[in-house]
Amino acid sequence: MQSILFSSWGGNIVDNRGKETQDYDRVDQGQLPEYFRQDEKIKALMGWNGFILRSEDVDIIDLCRNYLKAVHDYSKDCGKCNYCKTGYEELMEVLDDIRNGDATEEDMDFVESAAEAIVDSSKCSIGKIGPMAFRQALKHFNDDFKKAISGEKTVTAGTYRSKLTAPCMDACPLHLDIPRYIEFIKDAKFDESLEVIRERLPLAGVLGRACFRPCESHCRRGNVDEPIAIKSLKRFAADHELSKEKTPAFQVSPSDKTGRIAIVGAGPSGVTCAYHLALKGHTATIYEHLEEPGGMAAVGIPDYRLPRTILQSEVQQIQKMGVSINYGQTIGKDLTISQLENEFDAVFIGIGAQQSAHMGIEGEEPEYQGFIPGLAYLREVNAGRDPYSQGKKVVVIGGGNVAIDCVRCSLRTGKEDIHLVYRRTRKEMPADDAEIHDAEEEQTQFHFLTAPVRILAEGGKVVGLECIKMELGEPDASGRPRPVPVKGSEFILDCDCVVPSIGQKVDLSLLEGLEEVETTKWQTIQVNEFTKQSSRPKIFCAGDCETGPDALVTACAGGRRAALNIDRLINGQSLEYDDNYYFEKFFTAVKVFNPNEEIKKVESKPRCQVAVLAPETRKNTFDEIEQSFSESEAVAEAERCLKCYQVATIAI
Description:
alpha/beta, de novo design (two linked rop proteins), FAD/NAD(P)-binding domain, 3 domains, six-stranded antiparallel β-sheet, 24 helices
């Protein structure tokens, strides 16, 4: 509940003008934060869902003018609609006249009709939604506009911050300009689309296959029919370049001062960090203990989801920018962090969570033949080996993507009887729903509401897994219902191979001797969430070793952010939070996406589905399951995008 002077947010009108504060009707929608920065109170918000006034100090006319200017500035290079650009310019001209005392009463009728014309003629949300808050201000604050025109009121200038976003952009950890790259695909400008993606992400082909696509769950098109196939369109842009055998031309813009940076780990965060450092002219050297790039993306994701050739080709493009990779180098053994710190201007640590978590059940002994932790199981498979050729009956324990990959890889290595044990229901499984669906199609045997109790072994070999049935109780710290054992429901699954995949952890032994580097109770490196700088100024960190086991896109976002701040460090600039950080927090509070929004006047059009190998075919091969869109399919899918840009202007 908030003390608000006036609110039209979400179409709910609360008008407290002329009332004493204690008599205000309360506003419980909008969740407008009290502060933008620590020393900047938010006095008002105008945006995609209306406007909110908290302070009488805010001049509604000046707020409207600054909001419309922001909308115009973000849309002026589009030029797709006849009246959108000129319409916003005309609105601002009238508001300037009102502010300068040169407007007439006829101008009020004009701005209303102009705003309506923008809405009617526009093809995207910049025009469809942009004028809405202004039209509400005209309606509810009409007297303020008339008084300004008649000279009874002086328009007072305020201080504002504006930001462009979209529900999909906001949900993406990298904040990729998704509407823009989809728009380029719609116009068959595929190279330009990839250029937009590469402004932030060097691994379009990788993320186009292995991202968990939070953007799609926040796609407004899903409120009409189905979300845009954003991930598949990203993959298409990357695959199109490969199919045409084109070499990307990266635009390097060197910083005033460049330096040498050591990067530990050639996984997604390290590669992304190196890429953005190279774009600014820095020399990046990666140290990788494997003999290939990609880290956990290479050894932990099977080829049927992410062919290593794709990962390797995208990393090779980064190497052509001058990034060097030293393979077979283990930091803490071959070199130390201290040595790197002394030799380089900065050090970035981007190691993955490469150790499997323990279950803590009876008989959990790695000495047993047939007991293989999930990550080790996948490493063997990805190396082209059967992890346990003697075993034919496999039980995988867990509900994440690693567990799903383990059962699907078991099918592809000729196992005859494959089970997955998960202590909650399918609904609570953290794995990607599409991966679960594919595993179901491949006839994996799922045992939901089931937990392991002890591993059975004879002669040093696994012979079974004792399990117990569970029921869901009250939510735990994760917000999911806590599974509770059902007494007397124990049973035994006959198996000769048990693969626990209940979680991953980070090995921080490379930090030995660096007591100044702070770590967390979860055995991750403590860094500033925005700058990615550790307690040791020259050391930065992102990826799993900062967040714990997380998504590839999150690691890439962290690597990019670290690179930008390493550049600032080398150039003697302060590593301070900027408006991007504060707007991230702001959008989290006000909620950019409304899953219950009713979107009118949009014709339903089914989502284009990529071709996939049939279950009976794919479960016998490691060939890639999903195929890429054709050009016509990509254009057709891109045409479904509503281009949901949204602008927020706050008064401080």
